[in-house]
Amino acid sequence: MIRDFWVKNYLSIRDKQELSFLVKGPASELVTEVTEGVFLYKLGILYGSNASGKSNMLIAMDEIFHILIQPRHDTTKKVSGCIPFVLTKDEPTEMHVSFYADGIRYDYDVQFNERYIMNEVLNYYPNKSKSLFYERTFVGENVQAEIKFGPSLKLQPKTQDSIREHTLNNHSVLSVCRKNALTEDVAAFKELHNWIMANYHDIDGDEEKGVVDTLKEAYLIPKKRKFYNTMLQKADLNILEYRPVVEDRYVPTELRELIQKENISEKIKEELLRPTTDSIEFVNQSANGNFVIPLRWQSKGTIKYIRILEALYDMITSPHVYFLDELGEDLHNDLLFYYLNVFLFNTDKSQLIITSQETTLLSQDLINENRGVVWFVEKNRETASSEYSRGDSFGLHKNLSLYNSYRIGRLGAKPELGSIFINLED
């Protein structure tokens, strides 16, 4: 789980902007005790108008973990995700994240441009007290970086030298453990690296995996299949269950001939010319009996709901951190709040950070009474930079509605629209 995060000079963010999930005590179902005496919000919601920079904060949080775990094998490759603020593009980007992996706190600070990681420091708390994991400083192009390792790692001099040798100027020290050439004992590196790989997810999860593949995989796991069927039933979609099917596939003669002529592998041609295709059908119920509806007839909202169920399953079955952009898109507000409630009341060590335009969430008692889980995002008119204000920083009386305050503009983060009348004359 993420304890806190800040970023400077990245995308639409010029000045340092911070999100903190630290809370004083177990106030509600929104809070979990991540380790003894440390309480964190399980949920974070970012609101703002279009182009305000909501998504950019998620991208930044996602990116710092990419920097940590993705190695480079070529010194000419750009540092992962280096997109500085356009007006300060010659200055380095700075990021910080404090997070927990397998119950241990890690603090990571990094400064980078598109070519080099200038500085990075990783500290951790294996025994509740701060210890150095490693510290790295850029020396010069084609010059080995200066890397200092913490004594608690107990790395042999040979191992330290090998890590230094394999650490290029455009990737993190931690990511070096992914390089095949590194055969030394780097257990501490690999354990942390593997934890991040398994438990911290890209924005919106695996977008490349389609609904068919997702549901097919889930169908083969009884517990996961039960979860999907249960969530489909509870969502009032009139669906009892789903099942994988094979459907006939029509390939027009003209297209078939064109594919045959293409200079592509026979395997790809075979796949493109398959007479059948894998799909999903859904068993629906009515007073007159059950009937089947194919996947292609399902609504956009139903498809969106199915897509986000995999993240929910992961989060309620094991510790995970997910970043989901525009979660409320295409979903009824009641269904969105139901999804969040299932997450909150069935998870303990997972965290969900989202952006949303669904302002009715602010009217829910659970959110209104825990305003620290909400941030309002808007562009500074002078600097054109995104700024983030936590919901409990406005000094609103507890009896005042967060939703109403936002609607009337007291919290900012709303579009300022002009007259509805349009004059097209010169």
Task: Quickly list its features.
alpha+beta; Rossmann fold; 2 domains; 5-stranded mixed sheet
Mind explaining what this structure looks like?
The protein has 11 helices and 18 strands. The termini are far apart. With 426 residues, it is an alpha+beta fold. It folds into 2 domains: 1-201 and 320-416, 3-Layer(aba) Sandwich (Rossmann fold); 211-310, no CATH class.
Layout of helices and strands:
Layout: E1 2-8, E2 17-20, E3 22-23, E4 31-35, E5 38-41, E6 43-48, H1 54-69, E7 93-101, E8 104-112, E9 117-124, E10 131-137, E11 146-149, H2 157-166, H3 187-199, H4 211-219, H5 222-234, E12 239-248, H6 253-261, H7 266-272, E13 276-284, E14 291-294, H8 300-317, E15 321-324, H9 333-346, E16 351-355, H10 365-368, E17 374-379, E18 386-390, H11 402-407
Parallel strand pairs: 6-16, 6-17, 15-16
Antiparallel strand pairs: 1-2, 1-7, 3-5, 4-5, 7-8, 8-9, 9-10, 10-11, 12-13, 13-14, 17-18
Provide the domain count.
Answer: 2
Widest sheet: strand order?
A: 2-1-7-8-9-10-11
SSE sequence, one letter per element: EEEEEEHEEEEEHHHHEHHEEHEHEHEEH
Quote the beta fraction: 25-35%
Share of helix, binned: 25-40%
CATH class descriptor of the largest domain: Alpha Beta
The CATH architecture of the largest domain can be given as: 3-Layer(aba) Sandwich
Tally of alpha and pi helices: 11
Brief digest:
With 426 residues, the chain is of the alpha+beta class. The chain has eleven helices and 18 strands. Helix content is 28%, strand content 25%.
